[in-house]
Amino acid sequence: MTLRSQINLLIALLMGLFLTAVIALEVDATRRSIREEIEASTRITLQLLGTVVADTQARGGSVSPQLLTNFFQHLGRVRANNIKLEGAGGQVFYVSPQSHYKEGRNAPSWFVELVTPPALPTQIRVAGGLITVTPDPSRSVVDAWDDLSSLLQLGVASLALVLGLVFILAGRLLAPLQVIVSGLQQMERGEFHARLPAFKVTELNSLAESFNRMAQAVEDSFMLRRESAKRAEELRENRAVTALIQQHVEAERRALARELHDELGQGVTAVRTIASSIAQRAHERAPDLEANALAIVKVSGEMYDAMHSMVRQLRPIALDNLGLADALRELAASSRLRKPELSVDLELGPDLDGLDEQTNITAYRIIQESLTNVARHAAADTVMVRVSHDLEASALHLEIVDNGCGMDPQAINDERMGVRGMRERATGLGGRFELHSALGEGVRILVDLPIHLEQGSL
User: Fold this and answer.
1) Which own/partner contact pairs does 452-458 have at CB distance under 8 Å and 24+ positions apart?
2) Using an 8 Å Cβ cutoff, are 358 and 429 in contact?
3) Which of 329, 363, 346, 341 is nearest to 431 (CA)?
4) Nearest alpha-carbon partner for 69 in 45, 55, 43, 49
5) Is the pTM of this model over 0.85?
6) How far is C-alpha 97 from the geometric centre of its chain's CA atoms?
7) CB 315 within 8 A of CB 249
8) pLDDT in tens, 316-359
């Protein structure tokens, strides 16, 4: 049921109750009025008859039925009373004539029973006869019914008029609600640009203003979420591209490291071997040639060491051949050789062998970059590296902590420190990267890397 119909129904109910109350009061007033009229009419009739009888007797006359009959005939009908005169033998001398007032009309029986009060006939005995006075409120009841019918007609006409006016006015007043409902339906369909116009009714105008503010807030929030989703998708795509690039870079590094180790390494070794042979043969016959050959041996040795250093930087051979644990031990040892004053404490948990390729290389590169940063920027004398395998969570936990000078929080994402690269490596693999530091408090890096069941290749 619509609100408009509910308002009309409520008005109709209230007016119906009001009209019912008015009719009830009218019926009660009519009942009292008819009772008073009957009592008054009966009292007057009895007084009149008593006066006639007494006056006749005072003159020394006899109150005979003939005398009373003549009197009643001249008197005519008395309103609200029927008079009947009977003789001593039961013969009827006189009966009140029928009333001509609204002759032939009668009120409904239910209304008659509702408004007619109980009234008993009154009898007066006279010489030679009996006078019976019976109350007759029929004409008063007809008058009351006519008045009530007029009231009902007026009430029904007023009710119809009021309901019609209320229906029209309610339609005009509730018309803005259709606009509001339409706006809400637009919002439900995702049309967040929907706005409501200004209304003349103060309350509805306040509602429209609140709706417009809400719609604006929803639209702004939706646009922000859509922009955030777009940026998140772009970030996921960028990370996927970054991970792919890193995979290709690692593949190229591995291939280059193998080429350096296999081709250049063998060539440098051959040069060194040939130079050593020449130096041995020229030891006595050509001292100058021996010196040159030994110089070649020395330079080729330095080239070999430099080549091996480059190979370790490009791709740790131990990572492919021995696993993550041995590769990290070799990395820690090389860090101690490069900077003897830096103590590298390495704590490796069990079950670090047999991890997938992506986890191995990501963990190795993050620890490698961290140790490089400590050696170059931290001014630390101790760095602790912890690596553990959480079997339940299927994750690899890394913790690198140094006691150096720390970092300004504003410079944590400084590209020179390689932090962004480490973070991208970790998040690109679906892991978590955290860096905690403050000036004078060292640096603490926490990394969680998921371990995939399938072995990958870079």
Assistant:
1) 452/356, 452/358, 452/359, 453/356, 453/394, 454/356, 455/356, 455/357, 456/356, 456/357, 456/358, 457/357, 458/247, 458/250, 458/251, 458/254, 458/357, 458/358, 458/361
2) yes
3) 363
4) 49
5) no
6) 84
7) no
8) 776 777 788 888 888 888 888 888 898 999 999 887 877 888 88
Cα–Cα distance between 420 and 424 in angstroms, integer? 6
Q: Compute the distance between CA of residue 377 and CA of residue 389 in angstroms, rounded to an integer.
A: 29
Angle CA 454–457–458, to nearest 5? 140
CB 378 within 8 A of CB 417: no
Distance, in Å, from the CA atom of 130 to the CA atom of 132, rounded to the nearest integer, reads 6
Q: Judge residue 43's burial from the number of C-beta atoms within 10 Å of its C-beta, 0-12 exposed, 13-18 middle, 19 or more buried.
A: exposed
Determine which of 81-90, 130-139, 254-263, 354-363 has the lowest per-residue pLDDT on average. 254-263
Strands 81-87 and 92-95: antiparallel
The DSSP code sequence of 132-151 is: EEEE--HHHHHHHHHHHHHH
Residue 107 · residue 70 · CB < 8 Å: no
Q: Determine the Cα–Cα distance for residues 443 and 236; give it in Å rounded to an integer.
A: 28
Q: What type of residue is 375? A: A
For 155-214, the pLDDT digits (tens) are 888 888 888 888 888 777 777 778 888 888 888 888 878 888 888 878 888 888 888 888
pLDDT number for residue 456? 41
Write phi, then psi, for 19 (nearest 5 degrees): -65, -40
Count of Cβ atoms closer than 10 Å to residue 194 Cβ: 19
CB 389 within 8 A of CB 396: yes
The DSSP bridge partners found for residue 133 are 83, 122
The token pair that represents 450 in the structure block: 């998921």
85: phi then psi, degrees, rounded to nearest 5? -115, 125
d(C-alpha 111, C-alpha 308), whole Å: 124
Strand (E) or helix (H) holding 445: strand 443-450
pLDDT reading at 455 higher than 50: no
Pick from 201, 181, 198, 197: nearest CA to 189 = 181
Closest C-alpha among 419, 449, 446, 445 to residue 431: 449
Between CA 81 and CA 134 the distance in angstroms is: 6
- SS3 label, residue 342: coil
Q: Which residues pair with 388 in a beta bridge?
A: 397
